[in-house]
Amino acid sequence: MSRILKVAAAQLGPIALAEPRSSAVGRMIALMKNAKAQGAELVVFPELALTTFFPRWYTEEQSEIDKYFETEMPNKATQPLFDEARKLKIGFNFGFAELVVENGVTRHFNTAVIVNNQGEIAAKYRKIHLPGHTENEPWRAFQHLEKRYFEKGNLGFQVHPVFGGKIGMCICNDRRWPETFRVMGLQGVELVVLGYNTPKHYPPAPEHDHLQEFHNHLVLQAAAYQNGTWIVGVAKAGKEEDCELIGGTCIIAPTGEIVTECKTLADEVILAECDLDRCKEIQENIFNFDLHRQPKDYALITAAKKEPPSNH
Ligand code: ING
């Protein structure tokens, strides 16, 4: 018995600062149509897919920052994407900057949603591991101010019964932290979808710049294998406002094998038939958590932090 879910990864090339949301949405719709034509049931888009990666610039003007945020979803700019998805009967996942008022408090999150093939939002995730820094650091070639512009997500790492499987989400830097996937692995996740905007240059450790593509696949392949889950990781790629973003969009099997990956740094669709029943090969054997995990020896992993976090 095999539950095959045809999943497409829709990589986006650069989104210019001046590029309106309608342009990004138009590109996403073209990629969605391509994915559907290849038989996809679900298409995954990058993190912050509607605008340029604005945390690369410092500003103190909150009104300037809020311009990059969506106050409702769907909204005027994204309704055409939801309408097309419903027409094509295809589900999708994408990331955007979410501005929301909760209990009278204005909150800013780096968010992603799963939309079902009826065009309804079925699940939401808010990024938990926010990289970068909070103050302007002019020594850097560009800023990475996610800690300034976003709050830590408050929805945890959930697994959702959608598309006939157990599907989870994370966003970008989350993928570097094994805890992200283990929390979903402990919920029996079968497919994790995520987007990323990863600069080639990492100012605090430029000696690692040449390893960015390797680290991207390293963490995704390890996470897939160690939790017996499919993973679809989708880049916003290419030279975006003078900042080189890595590509490396890929679909990874529960064995940790890269099944397919993008070859360009532009808008590009790849597709894989994800047999969700293959997760059992790992989850019932080498990483059978009930049989083999020893949580009594892992207490340090969830212990509270001691000193204030370093600012990179
Ligand atoms: N971007 C990067 C990421 O984690 C980064 C930040 C780049 C961290 C390079 C370490 C090295 O992929 C986002 N948006 O999290």
Summarize this structure as a short list of keywords or feature phrases:
312 residues; binds D-[(amino)carbonyl]phenylalanine; six-stranded mixed beta sheet; Nitrilase/N-carbamoyl-D-aminoacid amidohydrolase; alpha/beta; 27% strand; 24% helix
Report on this structure:
The chain has 312 residues and is α/β, with parallel strands linked by helices. It has one domain (4-302): Carbon-nitrogen hydrolase (Nitrilase/N-carbamoyl-D-aminoacid amidohydrolase, 4-Layer Sandwich). Helices cover 24% and strands 27% of the residues. It has nine helices and 14 strands. The chain has helices spanning 21-37, 62-66, 79-88, 146-149, 178-185, 212-227, 279-286, 289-292, 299-302, and strands spanning 4-11, 42-44, 91-102, 105-115, 121-126, 159-162, 165-171, 191-196, 230-235, 238-240, 243-245, 250-252, 258-261, 268-275. Strands 5-4-3-2-1-14 form a six-stranded mixed beta sheet. A six-stranded mixed beta sheet has the order 6-7-8-9-12-13, with helices on one face. Helix 5 (178-185) links the parallel strand 7 and strand 8 (191-196). Helix 5 (178-185) runs parallel beside helix 6 (212-227). It is globular. The N and C termini lie far apart (47 Å). The mean pLDDT is 97. D-[(amino)carbonyl]phenylalanine is lined by residues 131, 172-173, 176, 196-199, 202. D-[(amino)carbonyl]phenylalanine (ING) binds at residues 131, 172-173, 176, 196-199, 202.
